[in-house]
Amino acid sequence: MNPAPHKKRTVLTWNGGPRILPALLILLACTVVPVAAAGAASCPGCGMIWKDTCVPFERNNETAYNEELTAAFAPVAANKTPPADYSNLSWSEAFRSLHILIKERYAFTQWRAVDFDALYTTWAPAIAAAEKEQDEAAYYRALRGYLVAVPDGHVEVLDTNGDFGAKYADIGGGYGIAVVRLDSGKVIVSYVANGSAAEAAGVRPGDEVTGWNGMEVHEAINATSSLWAVKKPSTAEGLLLQKSRLLTRAPVGTPASVKITYGAIQHPRIMNLTAYDDGYDSLKKSSFFLGKEVNDIGAVNRLTDIQPQVSNDTLTYRTLPGGYAYIAIYNEAYDVYGPFRAAMLDADTKNAPGVVVDLRYNSGGDDNLASCFAGWFVDEPVFYEYATTFDPGSRQFTAVSEAWTQPQPARYTGPVAVLVSPDTISSGEGLPMVFAKTGTGKVISWYGSNGAFGMNGPQAVLPLGMYVFFPDGASLGQDGVVQVDSNASLTGGVAPQVRVPLTEETVTRAMAGEDVQLTYAREWLDGQQVPAATATTPKASPSVAVVVVAVGTFVLARARK
């Protein structure tokens, strides 16, 4: 069948976990189940108009849903093609073919002002040199460099045969410290490894770093490569965060001079440290923005090894102090809706006074499910998106669907706090997008979401088992303008409406194990509560719905989100 933009992901497994296989060449068509539109269509030529994106999930018939999804692409289905297979070409030929393909079909070339020809000129010599030496690590590194230069978290290479040692060679060493940039602009040490040379020299969390290898520290951060960021950043904020994390990484044995103010010393001191194999310790300790320690960059297999560190649950639903309902949604898979609905109804029965929706580690999935989730919180219809896709026949990007978020009968009307992070990507950004549009609830976080909201999927197979993904469609607002995806100035995603302060005090609390962002969300909910009822002021009776959804499988494929 022909692929639909983003909506669902093809789950392919090996040894119980997701795997990219040649089966990716056969993609499922997925979008949202059709719902009869009231009145004239506002998306002429579209294959589908969904007036209520919850209908296919309420119906609970995934087979019928998948069958109906193909209808959205009826106008362009005859022209759609499977991912290009360049796996039998030489490395240089495959790279050139990929370049031609992405230059033609990438949905945001103008939006992000990407100069693919300049990128090709930069990276083709490295590909050729790697091919000449048959250096697989160098080939992978160059291919990744070409794709990382496109500021889009959806543009990536998935390596079924590993990274050939390139990652360890580049960033396998740490200096025993991690750093974070505060709201004030100050860069401080957030973590010091026990037994490290840095600890022996007296470095402590909270000490200020002002220089790195002879450069002013902010210049050093800006000069740091983001090549090995796993959740590739799409915004300036996300890029700065990842560069800060990677500043303290280098090949094992690499010396570094660190200018630091620490302890009772009033004047900066230069420390000489040497990178050692720490098992990516400083990277694990610098992922506090997720609310817990996660070994993302150091994971052996990022498709199977990261999410279990966050949760193995399909759905996590719990009650917080104060009676608030907590929902953590880790992706938008069809089978998440049932537990979500049940948890929402349970929270309503318990008359929860507030809801926290945690999307900080949401990797995306079905866009219409994200829209449906939002329907449990809004009080009026909200336009969700026009979805476009590249039509190889006309060689144009064509709108194929229209979707609306509709208020659900059991919707929650009380205060809602939504948590996001730079790891909130794709359809995970849909619910906060609706909240930002409507003013429903508040997005409360340290950082905004990733800013990669296009219609993503596997586009090409390269030598050595490399699968390249990039979006060949965009999500447009009702005005026909790209929404959520970051632009040429790296502005995008969904920004916090209540930004949790990033200070020495909040970082210290986070590193000690407190989920500071959740604390702020609860405090905000406390402030929204109706005063106790009096004889003249009847107390409101809020209804609540909530859940925490954790999808324990990783999905890859024709998913946007």
Could you explain how this protein is built, in words?
This protein has 561 residues and is of the alpha/beta class. The chain contains 16 helices and 25 strands. Strand 18 and strand 19 form a beta hairpin. The protein has one domain (1-528, 540-561): 2-enoyl-CoA Hydratase, Chain A, domain 1. The protein is globular, with a radius of gyration of 24 Å. The strands form seven sheets. The protein has a six-stranded mixed β-sheet with strand order 15-16-17-20-21-25, sandwiched between helices. Helix 4 (116-133) runs antiparallel to helix 5 (136-148). The longest helix is centred in the N-terminal third of the chain and has 18 residues, at 116-133.
Give a nutshell description of this structure.
26% of the residues lie in helices and 18% in strands.
Give the helices and strands, then pairings.
Blueprint: E1 13-14, E2 17-18, E3 48-50, H1 55-59, H2 62-69, E4 84-85, H3 91-105, H4 116-133, H5 136-148, E5 156-159, H6 166-171, E6 173-174, E7 177-181, E8 187-192, H7 197-200, E9 208-212, E10 215-216, H8 217-223, H9 236-246, E11 249-250, E12 255-261, E13 269-274, E14 276-277, H10 281-285, H11 307-310, E15 316-319, E16 325-328, H12 337-349, E17 355-358, H13 367-375, E18 382-391, E19 396-405, E20 416-419, H14 430-438, E21 442-445, E22 458-462, E23 466-469, E24 475-476, E25 498-499, H15 504-511, H16 516-527
Parallel strand pairs: 3-19, 4-22, 16-17, 17-20, 20-21, 21-25
Antiparallel strand pairs: 1-2, 5-23, 6-11, 6-14, 7-8, 9-10, 9-12, 12-13, 15-16, 18-19, 18-24, 22-23
Helix pairs in contact: 3-4, 4-5, 13-14
